[in-house]
Amino acid sequence: EPEVTQTPSHQVTQMGQEVILRCVPISNHLYFYWYRQILGQKVEFLVSFYNNEISEKSEIFDDQFSVERPDGSNFTLKIRSTKLEDSAMYFCASSGAGGPSDTQYFGPGTRLTVL
Amino acid sequence: KQEVTQIPAALSVPEGENLVLNCSFTDSAIYNLQWFRQDPGKGLTSLLLIQSSQREQTSGRLNASLDKSSGRSTLYIAASQPGDSATYLCAVIGSNDYKLSFGAGTTVTVRA
């Protein structure tokens, strides 16, 4: 069964460093998302991406964040200058041509630890 | 802003008992509602998706109902097994956006 994959599974970085989290969505999906979950808190929406542009973003997704689909398979989240409070599990998700009417499939997550 | 609440926060039952997990949301203008399972330190596995026009959805031992007008959904798991132990998350998509708004989850423990 097709699945969303994410790399790395765990990333440790120093405060102020840039990190890039990578995702490979399900191959025929058209909508892509990033969510995060701070330890012990709810899963929070960050951004949705369709047709090579951001379709929606939350107030969390400020100028330090950016997303890109550099080729036909990868979808990346870049955090430019990490802060301690960026430590969280980051989940990538994708859905099919139906967009919001379709199931969102989640990857296993990348645990980001900012020291 | 959509707020999703799940009650109870935790539940412990003996094997074989039926589970009832509740989810409520404040804005009834939703596109659909999804139930997920999350194992400790792992990703989210989609269990069921109910479109806003549907009243319920079934998959094996799982049955989810949706009452959009009252802002409620219930997930029933029949004849629970120890392998059902996990956190169950409810999430809704608003009819004007593409983002899932999640509840905090119900952590289920099924005792053998």
Please give a structural write-up.
The complex is a heterodimer of chains A (115) and B (112). Chain A has 115 residues and is an all-beta fold. Chain A is built from no helices and eleven strands. Helices cover 0% and strands 50% of the residues of chain A. In chain A, strands 2, 4, 5, 6, 9, 10 and 11 form a seven-stranded mixed β-sheet that branches. A four-stranded antiparallel β-sheet of chain A has the order 1-3-8-7, with no helix packed on it. Chain A is globular. With 112 residues, chain B is mainly β. Helix content of chain B is 0%, strand content 60%. Chain B has strands at residues 4-7, 10-14, 19-25, 30-38, 44-51, 56-59, 62-67, 72-77, 86-94, 100-102, 106-111. The model of chain B has no long low-confidence stretch (mean pLDDT 94). The A-B interface holds A 31, 33, 35, 41-45, 48, 50, 55-56, 58, 91, 99-101, 103-109, 111 and B 31-32, 34, 36, 41-46, 49, 51, 89, 91, 93, 97-105.
Brief overview:
The complex is a heterodimer of chains A (115) and B (112). Chain A is mainly beta and 115 residues long.
Strand content of chain B: over 45%
Query: Spans of chain A of 5+ residues with little confidence (pLDDT < 50)?
Result: none
Number of helices of chain A: 0
What is the number of helical segments of chain B per DSSP (H or I, 4+ residues)? 0
Into which percentage range does the β-strand content of chain A fall?
over 45%
Structural class of the helices, strands and pairings of chain A?
Answer: mainly beta
Query: Which quaternary structure do these chains form?
Result: heterodimer
Please describe the biggest sheet of chain A, giving its number of strands, its sense, and whether it closes into a barrel: 7 strands, mixed
Label the structural class of chain B.
Answer: mainly beta
Radius of gyration of chain A: 13 Å
Low-confidence stretches of chain B: none
| Radius of gyration computed on alpha carbons of chain B | 13 Å
Number of strands of chain B: 11
What is the typical, i.e. mean, pLDDT of chain B?
94
The biggest beta sheet of chain B is recorded as:
6 strands, mixed
What is the percent of helical residues of chain A?
under 10%
Helix content of chain B: under 10%
Question: What is the 3D shape of chain B?
Answer: globular
Shape of chain A: globular
